Amino acid sequence: MNRLLLVLMLVAGAANAQTNEQTIRICDDKGCSDRPRSSATFDPMHDDNPEETQRLAALAEIARKDPRAAYDLALRYFRGDGVKRDSYMAIKWMREAGDRGVPDAHLALGRFYLMGVEEMGSDPAEAEKWLSLAAARGDKEAEKLLTEARAAKKTEQELYRWREAYRKSWFGWWASGYSYHWYWGPAGWYYR
Known about the structure:
Elements: H1 2-22, E1 23-28, E2 31-36, H2 50-65, H3 67-79, H4 87-99, H5 103-115, H6 124-136, H7 140-176, E3 182-185, E4 188-191
Antiparallel strand pairs: 1-2, 3-4
């Protein structure tokens, strides 16, 4: 009886091991399942939401023709209104609108570059460029922000000059001013 049980356990274990070699457990948004090792798990051409993709393509096509639509699409990307929030696409379409002369885009770009957007830090020089365009048409808010951008640009330039003046001495100190506690010798590592 014990031998029969042992043989059955060995056969079941061998069959299970053979099955496990040919399949792999994959978990995704649809749940977990055992799939053959040769199956593909990622399809870059698969579109989860074809209606949204078509709608975005139509909006982008309109935005290429009309700069006001580019401004509108940039706001949608910035706010996540009807589309997935994407700061890169927001700035791309806002620059498209600004380059083609939409006055509101100049002010928006000035704000974006002055304050920074998500992973993008501030860029006072670029902010000054866009705010100058908005202030030239008499926008009071742009004039106020332009003075802030110029002050930030000046501060950034002074900080850069100061940092560059002392960089070499700092590097020299860090390179030679601190000694190692461990060093390599003929018989291995030694501690001072």
